[in-house]
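Sequence and structure are no longer studied apart. As an example, we show below a sequence and the tokens encoding its fold:
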Amino acid sequence: MSRKTLTLQEWRSEAEPKFGKDVKKWKFKCPSCGESQTLQEFIDAKIEEPTKKFYYSCIGRWVEKRGCKWTLGGLLQIHETEVISEEGDKIPVFEFSEV
């Protein structure tokens, strides 16, 4: 599988026309179950360290009756996009959701 690799700025440039500059409103789609989620939903659910999870782990890990328990930190790598962090690390991310 070939993956798309974006700089942090490129990734932001893709998101802002779709969702605006407020990162809390950016929508991501779990590659396993298709659940759509936002940072604001992680904050509202009082999930610890939401800014490190909302683009990487399905909200179903913490919220019952939502999504699944998928995370991109596991053995199976089904993500399509990686973002290069400011430190130069490649971070797997969920795709942006159209919903």
